[in-house]
């Protein structure tokens, strides 16, 4: 299995932490892509706290049923979510591996309703590479994500161990929209785990799909630019009794946010060094957060980090 490249790497990083697409900056190159072939070797005791197999968590609300597909440990518990409304389905993200893609299609077909839209939260391939196996070639995404995919998508697809097609993308405007008979509110958040992440609020279910803004007891893919991410998380704490469907791990509530903030605040000084000691940082974060899964994500982010 292969991972995405460094979205904060080298010349792709601007002073603001985002890409100036007008200047042709490419946030993803083949040389940035690393193998996860040794992924199980990094799990250790932390992985034992999280079920190793893929599973689906379903909640029922007056406005919709929500189905969260949580991939296996070998795919870092990446998620995809199905919003089931009275007239159809909306899929958010498509998983990473062919196995996840096939599982997601089987989940969609098992619900017996037409799939009306596929939303892509952000440009990292662990959230769209599975769409090829799922046979869903078209997605809706934000303008920044669409531009990043146009620039970097072919290289990311070529780096996957199985044949992967870059999905066709239409830009989805932010704001209120009704899909599958469900009222949704789509917004875009900049400069957290990725340059742009789509969030999907389902007001009638008191739920917000926030994807990789929120890692729930899974080690995060980080950079030196953590301040905005922490600020966004503190904003989520003020949302009250809301369920967050996350990008890696189980659905969560605001009660889990302080622990993620503590994680990011703990890693921030460790990555401040000009040349971070990758092995030492991973070991220290595993020691501090022994119940967090997939420390290979943290290790990969450190390997992609340019000198400070």
SSE inventory with pairings:
Blueprint: H1 44-47, E1 55-60, E2 65-70, E3 79-84, E4 89-92, H2 98-110, E5 115-119, H3 131-134, E6 138-141, H4 143-158, E7 168-171, E8 175-179, E9 182-190, E10 196-202, E11 207-215, H5 227-237, E12 243-248, E13 252-253, H6 257-270, H7 278-288, H8 295-304
Parallel strand pairs: 4-5, 6-7, 11-12
Antiparallel strand pairs: 1-2, 2-3, 3-4, 8-9, 9-10, 10-11, 12-13
State the helical fraction: 25-40%
Count the strands? Answer: 13
Q: Ends: how far apart? A: 29 Å
Sketch the topology as an H/E string, one letter per element.
HEEEEHEHEHEEEEEHEEHHH
The strand order across the widest sheet is 8-9-10-11-12-13
Structure description:
The chain is α+β, with helices and mostly antiparallel strands. It is 27% helix and 24% strand. The protein is built from 8 helices and 13 strands. Strands 8-9-10-11-12-13 form a 6-stranded mixed beta sheet, covered by helices on one side. The protein has a 5-stranded mixed beta sheet with strand order 1-2-3-4-5, with helices on one face.
Give a summary of the structure in a few sentences.
The chain is of the alpha+beta class. The protein contains 8 helices and 13 strands.
Relevant terms:
308 residues, alpha+beta, six-stranded mixed β-sheet, five-stranded mixed β-sheet, 13 strands, 24% strand, globular, disordered N terminus
């Amino acid at each position: 299995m292969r991972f995405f490249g460094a979205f904060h790497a080298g010349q792709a990083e601007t002073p603001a932490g985002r890409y100036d697409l007008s200047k042709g900056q490419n946030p993803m190159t083949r040389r940035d892509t690393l193998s996860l072939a040794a992924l199980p070797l990094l799990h250790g005791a932390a992985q034992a706290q999280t079920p190793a197999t893929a599973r689906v968590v379903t909640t029922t609300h007056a406005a919709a049923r929500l189905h969260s597909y949580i991939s296996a440990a070998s795919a870092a518990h990446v998620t995809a979510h199905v919003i089931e409304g009275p007239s159809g389905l909306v899929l958010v993200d498509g998983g990473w591996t062919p196995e996840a893609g096939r599982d997601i299609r089987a989940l969609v077909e098992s619900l017996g309703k037409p799939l009306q839209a596929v939303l892509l939260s952000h440009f990292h391939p662990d959230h769209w590479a599975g769409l090829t196996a799922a046979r869903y070639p078209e997605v809706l995404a934000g303008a920044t994500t669409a531009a990043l995919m146009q620039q970097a998508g072919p290289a990311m697809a070529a780096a996957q161990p199985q044949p992967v097609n870059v999905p066709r993308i239409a830009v989805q405007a932010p704001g209120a929209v009704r899909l599958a008979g469900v009222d949704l509110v789509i917004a875009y958040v900049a400069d957290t785990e990725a340059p742009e992440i789509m969030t999907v609020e389902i007001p009638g279910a008191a739920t917000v799909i926030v994807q990789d803004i929120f890692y729930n007891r899974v080690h995060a893919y980080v950079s030196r630019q953590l301040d905005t991410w922490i600020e966004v998380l503190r904003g989520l704490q003020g949302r009250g009794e809301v369920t967050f469907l996350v990008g890696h791990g189980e659905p969560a509530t605001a009660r889990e946010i302080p622990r993620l903030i503590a994680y990011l605040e703990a890693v921030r000084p460790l990555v401040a060094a000009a040349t971070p000691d990758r092995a030492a940082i991973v070991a220290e974060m595993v020691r501090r957060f022994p119940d967090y899964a997939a420390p290979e994500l943290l290790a990969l982010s450190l390997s992609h980090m340019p000198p400070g």
